[in-house]
Amino acid sequence: MSLWTATDAAAATGGRATADWSATGVSIDTRTLQPGDLFVALKDVRDGHDFVAQALAKGAAAALVTHVPDGVPADAPLLIVTDVLAALEDLGRAGRARMSGKVIAITGSVGKTSTKEMARIALTGQGRIHAAEASYNNHWGVPLTLARMPADTDFAIIEIGMNHPGEIAPLSRQARPHVALITTVAAAHLEAFGALEGIAREKGAIFQGLQPIGTAILPEDLPVTQILRDCADQAGAVVLGFGREGMARLVWAKPRDGQLECRARITGDTVEFTLNSTGLHFVLNAVGVLAALSAAGADLTQAATHLADWTPPKGRGGVEILGQIRLIDDAFNANPASLSAGLATLAGLQGGRRVAILGDMLELGDQELTMHRDMASDPSIASIDLIHAAGLRMRHLYDALPEAKRGTWADTAAELALNAGSLVAPGDIVLVKGSKSSKVSTVVDALRKGAGSTAPQR
């Protein structure tokens, strides 16, 4: 089925098609390009124009370019534009404009991708669903997701992220969501924002792209909740709070066999659902998802039922049986809020010794050392038996711990990974967490290598 014809793409971008072609997908990477894709020659570390010949040889329907690249025939199927990224944004806007379904946008300091996946899976059986791949949430990922969206999509879920001020509002305006959900606001990217209030205002900018009388779903009981409400009010949105309080609230959550049996109240309706996690932060985000889907017109009961099919994405808090230990792989990213949530998940699991292996939290600004040290006072620390740490920042947490809880400290996660087997013992429950750049995922890899194959815990 055609996604873009040469005529439609040229009309959307103002470009010139050198031939008649029809594309069934859109790609920015020749390594994952599928036959029939429109290859978008973006410029990053390498110029995408250098890969156009390869893309066409792999079966690309056409390439989006600013000129005919070297080694490519002049009569090759191309769409020539002034600026490739601007043209991709134009394709995204056109893809959004021709779609008559509902769009849900999701942002937050923690949990964007896992929450997006919750929403996608919860919508099973409710029409054609289109969602961002992986963490496609930046100035490339959002227009690419929109450009890939089939015209007959019933529900689209768009993830929107940021690293610096001013990034979210333009992406939200491209997506033009009917519902926008903020998972939480926490100390992440503080180097760029200076304070939590600045992060809240940037997250609240997602409401600027809402359709008229759109719905803003925001977390209750944050120190910056009022800032989010102000942003929603300025956008003229219908505001719906979620959490332990609010119009969408968690009534109770009971652990059972590594899962949580939950009841929630969503704008007057009571629903029950099962979540394949013991993390309370995942449960609260699930409440937010149900509120968002209900606001978008989805069937609430059906959505709640399908939440049981969701599992945390790789590196984001899933629990695995790994040989003779249970592993919580939360090594994709970290900030104080997500680390606190990860420690709470570890503390809540019953069984053997609880062990945390922690890497540095990055991009926290000039208070980063204090933030690391203060984690030693987290309420869950009392329930954790042993903490190994890597990195100069995490040394400040390590030194603040009671001596009995101190395991091994190393300069780098790679050093811990070399001795991963000595960090844990049979029967342990192990949390591995840190910012992606801390490379603490190498410890996860080492533990997996030592244990052999893995199986998700159900």
UniProtKB/TrEMBL annotation:
Protein name per Swiss-Prot or TrEMBL: UDP-N-acetylmuramoyl-tripeptide--D-alanyl-D-alanine ligase
Taxonomic lineage from the root: Bacteria, Pseudomonadati, Pseudomonadota, Alphaproteobacteria, Rhodobacterales
Domain Mur ligase C-terminal: 324-435
One GO CC term on file: cytoplasm
Keywords, sorted A to Z: ATP-binding, Cell cycle, Cell division, Cell shape, Cell wall biogenesis/degradation, Cytoplasm, Ligase, Nucleotide-binding, Peptidoglycan synthesis
Binding site for ATP: G108, S109, V110, G111, K112, T113, S114
MF term (GO), any: UDP-N-acetylmuramoyl-tripeptide-D-alanyl-D-alanine ligase activity
Gene name of the encoded protein: murF
Its EC number(s): 6.3.2.10
